[in-house]
Design goal:
With 79 residues, this protein is mainly beta. Helices cover 10% and strands 51% of the residues.
């Protein structure tokens, strides 16, 4: 559960895009390994700090889930 909502967790490899990867203060755009781009929510402060320490273009492996009632997926962990 994330914030009281059930989520289906998926694991994916991607590449950070935009300066420091952030599209705004609570989301990040990632180029997925298939070449598509997706915006993910990032609500965990530790994950935000981890992403802030990475350069644009850094390849990352992360897990994400679909949060009920939200349009964008949420990053749950970064390896």
């Amino acid at each position: 559960m994330v914030n009281g909502a059930n989520v289906k967790v998926l694991k994916v490899l991607g590449t950070l895009r935009f300066h420091n990867g952030f599209a705004d203060t609570s989301s990040v755009e990632i180029e997925i390994s298939d070449g598509s781009y997706q915006t993910f929510m990032v609500n965990d402060e530790d994950l935000v700090n981890k992403l802030n320490d990475m350069d644009e273009g850094t390849k990352i492996t992360f897990t994400y889930g679909a949060v009920e009632g939200q349009a964008n997926m949420e990053i749950l962990s970064i390896e």
